[in-house]
């Protein structure tokens, strides 16, 4: 009896604990028929039927022409750079998940960090040109929090200097602007279907390609470079998505509209409740006509009674696991901080955002009572 007490209280505590996200999972019984099909066909991977169906279904859903599925977003980023034979220096943002820059190092490319726009927190096009050198071959921007980059300004610079543009679109599933899917811009866009993302296949990712020829090259690169049984055309990697993940993605896709609608509702409640709170700024949309509400970042400034880190700690004390996306900046990690472009003086806006941002929980199952709990902590400071 006494021995079970601590367990009971731990369970209660864990129940009460809120995370910044919670993966969407469809009813388990709906997944079983997919597994039965895999068991009977014995096709587990290598571009099987579920893989083909998911590629087609995602093209239709996202409004893009071609897409190649991957085991995860990071392998897709590494392969996207390979597909265009990117070398030398690539201009990128320090305000992102570390995989953005890691994909450059995996290709022996030198990242060149450029500061971000204070409103959108995306790569600032006005700062790109001064960072271009004779070694620059590409730009790798990120649609941070799913808010579109200034794709036109970036493309203009790329055209002027003959650079490729590879978007890290890991946050941008389903995001549309007046021109259609945000994933159509640049030379390639890379998605992540990691468990923490808006659309998840447990682990997964994809490269959105503009034409069949590029897709074919990418399909070779993700399968060791094999073209047929005896022909290998490149030192490709194993980046293939399995049939289990692809089947799961097909089922998830049936629920995505409901999940996005639930996120939209939570986003609106937060904005309404936090409106006018001194020292708290909610990051605005960046002109998307369809947003995905993948994150709910707030910026805590000096008008707020607590520092960002004090507020972060206060949330933790209440078992609310808010996250500081993106702190530290990528440019502050040991493998990057020696680069000239990693210098804090070069990145004042990113440094400021990184030290003031806090991402609040947002996911379809977040209850109104818990949203109230979260807002009360901020308002009670
Ligand atoms: C999640 C994420 C990645 C990596 O994707 P994985 O599927 O986890 O490998 C890359 N870039 C950004 C911006 C991300 O948020």
TrEMBL record:
Positions annotated as active site in the UniProt record: 197 (proton acceptor)
GO MF assignments: pyridoxal phosphate binding; transaminase activity
Gene3D superfamilies registered for this protein in UniProt: Type I PLP-dependent aspartate aminotransferase-like (Major domain)
Keywords per UniProt: Aminotransferase, Pyridoxal phosphate, Transferase
N6-(pyridoxal phosphate)lysine: residues bearing it: 197
Gene Ontology biological process terms from the UniProt entry: polysaccharide biosynthetic process
Pfam family, one: DegT_DnrJ_EryC1
Keyword Transferase: yes
Homology family: Belongs to the DegT/DnrJ/EryC1 family.
Protein name: dTDP-4-amino-4,6-dideoxy-D-glucose aminotransferase VioA
Native source organism of the sequence: Caballeronia novacaledonica
């Amino acid at each position: 009896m006494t021995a079970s007490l601590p367990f009971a209280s731990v369970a209660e505590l864990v129940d009460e604990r809120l995370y910044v996200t919670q993966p969407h999972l469809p009813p388990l019984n709906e997944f079983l028929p997919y597994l039965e099909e895999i068991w009977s066909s014995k096709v587990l991977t290598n571009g099987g039927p579920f893989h083909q169906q998911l590629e087609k279904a995602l093209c239709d859903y996202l409004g893009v022409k071609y897409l190649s599925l991957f085991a995860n977003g990071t392998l897709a980023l590494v392969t996207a750079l390979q597909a265009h034979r990117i070398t030398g220096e690539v201009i990128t943002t320090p305000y992102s998940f570390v995989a953005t820059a890691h994909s450059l190092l995996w290709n022996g490319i030198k990242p060149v960090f450029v500061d971000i726009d204070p409103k959108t927190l995306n790569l600032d096009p006005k700062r790109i040109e001064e960072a271009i050198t004779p070694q620059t071959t590409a730009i790798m921007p990120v649609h941070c929090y799913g808010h579109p980059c200034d794709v036109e300004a970036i493309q203009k610079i790329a055209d002027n200097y003959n650079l490729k543009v590879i978007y890290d679109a890991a946050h941008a599933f389903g995001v549309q602007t007046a021109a259609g899917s945000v994933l159509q811009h640049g030379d390639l866009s890379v998605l992540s279907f990691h468990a923490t993302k808006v659309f998840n296949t447990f682990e997964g990712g994809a490269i959105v390609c503009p034409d069949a020829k590029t897709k074919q090259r990418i399909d070779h690169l993700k399968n060791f470079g094999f073209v047929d049984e005896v022909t290998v055309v490149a030192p490709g990697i194993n980046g293939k998505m399995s049939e289990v993940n692809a089947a799961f993605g097909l089922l998830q896709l049936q629920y995505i509209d409901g999940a996005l609608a639930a996120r939209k509702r939570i986003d609106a409640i937060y904005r309404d409740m936090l409106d006018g709170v001194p020292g708290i700024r909610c990051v605005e949309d960046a002109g998307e006509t369809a947003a995905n509400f993948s994150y709910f970042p707030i910026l805590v400034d000096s008008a707020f009674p607590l520092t960002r880190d004090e507020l972060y700690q206060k949330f933790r004390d209440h078992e609310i696991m808010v996250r500081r996306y993106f702190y530290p900046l990528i440019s502050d990690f040991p493998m990057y901080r020696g680069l000239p472009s990693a210098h804090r003086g070069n990145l004042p806006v990113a440094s400021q955002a990184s030290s003031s941002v806090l991402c609040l929980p947002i996911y379809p199952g977040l209850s109104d009572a818990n949203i109230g709990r979260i807002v009360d902590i901020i308002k009670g400071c």
